[in-house]
Amino acid sequence: RKEVEQDPGPFNVPEGATVAFNCTYSNSASQSFFWYRQDCRKEPKLLMSVYSSGNEDGRFTAQLNRASQYISLLIRDSKLSDSATYLCVVIGLGTGFQKLVFGTGTRLLVSP
Amino acid sequence: DTEVTQTPKHLVMGMTNKKSLKCEQHMGHRAMYWYKQKAKKPPELMFVYSYEKLSINESVPSRFSPECPNSSLLNLHLHALQPEDSALYLCASSFEAGGSGNEQFFGPGTRLTVL
Question: Does A13 touch chain B (CB under 8 A)?
Answer without folding.
Answer: no
